[in-house]
Design a protein that fits this description.
two-stranded antiparallel sheet; seven-stranded mixed sheet; alpha+beta; 4 helices; about 210 residues; 9 strands; Rossmann fold
C-alpha cells in the first residue's frame, strides 16, 4: 500500500528545491576507472511514469555538469522488458562507460487531519460615516484538510561497464509535507537527485 501511495505522489514532488540526507554505503575504490563521462541512468519502480520522471531529473542534473547522460526510459516504452538484457543492449548502443541504478528502499507516510483557520468577511455600507450598528459579518471555516508527512529513501549504485562491478553506492533520504491542496514544504525528490549528483562530484565519479 505504501508503494502505491508513493507512485501516486511522485509526479507532484519533483518541482521544488531542497536537500536530502546522504548515507555512504560503498566508497569509490582507488582501482575504479572513474571519472565517467557517458552514463546510462536506470530507475527501478513499478510505474513507468515514475521511473521516467526520476530518470529525467537525474539526467538533467548530470548534463548540467557536462556529462553525456541518457535515461533508459527514453530508449524503451512501458511494454519493454525490464531486465539485464535490455539494459546491456542500451549500454552497448550508447557506448556508456557507467550505469547508474536507483531503487526505492523505503517509503513511509504518516497522515493526520489538520484544522483550518476561520475567515471573516465584513460588508460595510458605502456611506461616508462608519456605523458600528450597521455592519454585516460573515464568518466561515474551511473543512479539515489531510496533511501527510512523507519520508523517501533511495538507494543508488554506479556500475563500471568495463569491470561489470558496482564501484560506488549511497542512500539518500528526503522528507516533505503535502496536503490535499498540493501544498508542499520540506525536502523533495529534486533534493534527492541533486544529492546523488553532488555526491558523485564529491567522490570524483564525474
Amino acid at each position: 500500500m505504501k508503494k502505491i501511495a508513493w507512485l501516486v505522489c511522485l509526479p507532484f514532488v519533483l518541482g521544488a528545491c531542497a536537500t536530502s540526507k546522504v548515507t555512504p554505503v560503498q566508497a569509490l575504490s582507488e582501482s575504479a576507472d572513474a571519472p565517467y563521462g557517458n552514463i546510462l541512468v536506470v530507475c527501478l519502480f513499478e510505474s513507468f511514469d515514475s521511473r521516467r520522471a526520476l530518470e529525467r531529473e537525474i539526467v538533467r542534473q548530470l548534463q548540467a555538469e557536462g556529462i553525456d547522460a541518457v535515461a533508459s526510459t527514453s530508449m524503451m516504452n512501458s511494454k519493454t522488458p525490464v531486465n539485464r538484457d535490455t539494459f546491456l543492449a542500451m549500454v552497448e548502443e550508447k557506448n556508456s562507460d557507467a550505469l547508474l541504478l536507483t531503487q526505492l528502499v523505503e517509503f513511509d507516510i504518516k497522515s493526520k487531519m489538520q484544522g483550518r483557520s476561520p475567515r471573516a468577511t465584513y460588508n460595510i455600507r458605502p456611506t461616508y460615516y462608519f456605523n458600528v450598528y450597521d455592519v454585516e459579518l460573515t464568518e466561515y471555516s474551511e473543512p479539515e484538510g489531510l496533511e501527510m508527512d512523507q519520508t523517501v529513501t533511495l538507494a543508488t549504485q554506479v556500475f563500471s561497464v568495463s569491470t561489470k562491478e558496482p564501484v560506488w553506492a549511497i542512500e539518500t533520504t528526503g522528507k516533505f509535507k503535502r496536503n490535499m491542496d498540493q501544498q508542499r514544504s520540506g525536502d523533495t525528490l529534486e533534493g534527492e537527485t541533486r544529492a546523488i549528483v553532488n555526491s558523485m562530484k564529491r567522490d570524483r565519479l564525474l
